[in-house]
Write a structure and sequence with these properties.
Layout lengths: L4 H10 L7 H8 L1 E2 L8 E2 L8 H6 L9 E6 L5 H14 L5 E5 L2 H17 L2 H4 L16 E4 L2 E7 L3 H4 L6 E5 L14 H6 L9 E6 L8 H7 L4 E6 L6 E3 L5 E4 L2 E8 L6 E2 L4 H6 L2 E4 L9 E6 L11 H11 L3 H10 L14 H6 L13 E10 L3 E10 L4 E10 L6 H11 L2 E2 L4 E3 L1 E7 L4 H8 L7 E6 L11 E7 L2 E11 L1 H12 L14 E2 L5 H7 L2 E8 L2 E8 L5 H16 L6 H5 L4 E2 L8 H4 L5 H5 L1
Parallel strand pairs: 3-8, 3-15, 4-6, 4-7, 7-8, 9-15, 16-21, 18-25, 21-22, 22-24
Antiparallel strand pairs: 1-2, 5-6, 9-10, 9-14, 11-12, 12-13, 16-17, 17-18, 19-20, 20-28, 23-24, 26-27
Helix pairs in contact: 2-4, 11-12, 16-18, 17-18
């Protein structure tokens, strides 16, 4: 006769709670699966000793209600949240919610971490309902267990965050959450509101930080006592937090890296890290803010266990990123665990106007590898910039053009097709076509799609600007193309991070040549355009505004005609798609040009070439 599970559950509920911390539970009960871990087997907190105090603050008998963890990559941070879930299911059953930025990430978490957590732990298998195709007690987004339920929700779904009262809440990667969800406010506030009916609730908030002034995790951390992990020097015993500035290496030799002790100045080899981490302790940098209810922790990748993310790899990553603003931002966020300070103010347009160069418009300088074009669509015209890109990511503006015509009609698009058919000469006899043209779909979208369908995706791509996208370009998505209400085909639409790319461009525009006249990587060269072009290129600046109680950065026009800025951003996105940021200089140098052929004279009237902005704007 099968034992009645309801009676078993009843008697289990009468047992006193095992007085055990989260880290002790993980060491005693958890096994890592080969599916979700590079080091399968019994979980060992001693591998990441800095996580012990963080996890133990999540224990049911600890007083802290909110635990804030600012983390870098490769330090095991997400595992601390996973251990907390196992602890909740086994030791402290209650309604529990784990929030990820998107529904897609929820699916990956459920299949890649939660299912292996349960499968590798017999104590959880006994308590969690078995997975059955018709059983709603164990699904991708919900796991029922004796005494509680685990709900997995995406921060992009208001309905999922309003579901039920919650005692235990994990908010993972909060800086990737939308700031305002369907007009209902912050998903962080929506989720934490679920815990109000539980006086003994736990809120675990962890994330890699993003933009200074707009980072949710940095804002929460600033309200805590701000603990940093101090480790002893193996030479003098002096306690200190590990900071990137104290990594020292011979120029060009990352393998020589060592850590310079703040106290005695001795160089510490990374082999000492195991002992240093084991004897470390958390120290609040704001002791006046110590609070029994709230505590904050900060950890960078220098603490990553020996054999994971090494100091020499951190140095290699830094050297590869330091000349590239987008890569450097990723390094600061994910390796140092720090916010990135965007410099969104536009450089004075007069500075750019005064440093114009005397190379000829519509001729390709000798060091250009390939050309791209960015097209901005207005009601009565198309505006575009043709940009030449060098192997070190310097750029030359080859020409800026205005093509007059109703963009809901055919004629102006034929003019654009003529531009795409052109070739631009270089002094060595090579001729350059536009390698890739990016056309904005924000206006007259159907006509943009129709134009793009004339060409392959390797010549013309439709793009859509996204302010919130924290990268230059995201992978393309397939969109339907319709005509007269009927589907006639598909296109790949590229989303581009316009805010991210504007910040990157303005950083490049502020660069100056060396004393000997050598331009640095990312430097922007311009021919003798008029002032209107440079006013348009610097037309916007980033300002901080408070929206629904949260700081939000927005780009604001300071000059009405910002088409040069938009066109440059679109041309840059085309360069990203081609591979400017990932190909080696040797590969990039091999991309350019073709042997010059006899060409028909260009008709400047038909293509609008080199039209003076004074003619257009008065």
């Amino acid at each position: 006769m099968e034992p009645r599970t309801d009676i078993i559950g009843f008697y289990q509920g009468l047992r006193p709670i095992e007085r055990i911390t989260v880290s002790q539970w993980a060491d005693k009960y958890r096994f890592l699966s080969p599916v979700s871990s590079a080091e399968p087997g019994r979980y060992r907190t001693s591998r990441t000793p800095y996580l012990r105090a963080i996890m133990d603050c999540l224990s049911v008998h600890d007083t802290h209600k909110k635990i804030v963890f600012v983390k870098a990559a490769q330090i095991g941070g997400t595992e601390s949240g996973t251990n907390f879930l196992g602890y909740c299911m086994h030791i402290a059953p209650a309604p529990t919610m784990f929030v990820q930025p998107t529904d897609e990430m929820v699916k990956r978490l459920s299949k890649g971490r939660i299912d292996p957590l349960i499968e590798m732990c017999p104590e959880l298998q006994q308590r969690v309902a078995p997975s059955k195709s018709r059983d709603s007690n164990n699904t991708i987004t919900q796991k029922s267990f004796n005494g509680g339920v685990l709900i997995l929700a995406g921060a992009n779904s208001a309905a999922g965050l309003r579901s039920v009262p919650i005692r235990n809440l994990v908010l993972d990667e909060v800086d990737a959450y939308p700031q305002d969800l369907d007009g209902e406010g912050s998903p962080i506030d929506l989720a934490t509101a679920r815990t109000r009916t539980f006086p003994n609730h736990k809120i675990f908030m962890l994330s890699t930080p993003t933009i200074e002034g707009a980072s949710a995790i940095a804002r929460e951390f600033a309200e805590t006592d701000q603990n940093f992990y101090h480790v002893p020097c193996p030479h003098c015993g002096g306690m200190q937090p590990l900071v990137f500035a104290n990594l020292k290496w011979d120029e060009g030799k990352p393998d020589t890296v060592k850590y310079k002790c703040t106290h005695c100045g001795e160089l510490i080899a990374e082999r000492h890290k195991v002992e240093m981490l084991a004897n470390g302790l958390w120290v609040p940098s704001k002791p006046e803010r110590v609070n029994p209810d709230v505590i904050g922790f900060h950890l960078n990748s220098l603490y990553s266990p020996y054999g994971w993310h090494s100091w020499k790899q951190i140095v290699r990553d830094f050297l590869a990123a330091k000349e590239n603003q987008s890569k450097l931002k990723v390094f600061v966020n994910t390796t140092l665990g720090e916010t990135w300070a965007e410099r969104g103010e536009a450089p004075p347009y007069k500075n750019l106007y005064n440093r114009r160069e005397q190379y000829k418009i519509n001729e390709v300088p000798a060091d250009v590898c390939f050309l791209t074009a960015g097209v901005d669509v207005q009601r009565d015209r198309l505006e575009l910039e043709i940009v030449g890109w060098c192997a070190d990511k310097r750029s030359y503006s080859i020409d800026f053009r205005v093509l007059d015509g109703d963009t809901a009609a055919t004629k102006v698009w034929n003019k654009l097709a003529d531009v795409l058919a052109e070739r631009w000469p270089r002094k060595d006899g090579m001729e350059f076509p536009i390698r890739l043209m990016a056309v904005d779909t924000g206006y007259n979208t159907t006509h943009v799609y129709n134009f793009c369908r004339r060409y392959g995706a390797d010549r013309v791509v439709p793009i859509k600007g996204q302010d919130h996208l924290g990268m230059a370009v995201s992978p393309p998505k397939s969109v339907d193309v319709t005509k007269a209400g009927k589907k006639v085909g598909k296109l790949r639409l590229w989303n581009i991070g316009v805010s991210f790319m504007k910040g990157e461009l303005y950083a490049a525009l502020r660069l100056e040549k060396d004393s000997d006249g050598t331009p640095p990587p990312n430097y922007c060269h311009f021919p003798e355009y008029d002032e209107h072009y440079f006013r348009g290129l610097t037309a916007e600046e980033q300002v901080k505004r408070i929206v629904r109680g949260y700081a939000k950065f927005q780009w604001v026009k300071r000059y009405e005609r910002n088409e040069p800025l938009d066109c440059r951003i679109y041309a840059r996105s085309a360069a990203v798609i081609i591979g400017l940021d990932r190909l080696t200089p040797k590969r990039l140098a091999a991309m350019g040009g073709a042997v010059a052929k006899k060409r028909e004279p260009r008709n400047s009237e038909s293509n609008g070439r080199s039209r003076d902005y004074n003619d257009f704007w008065g």
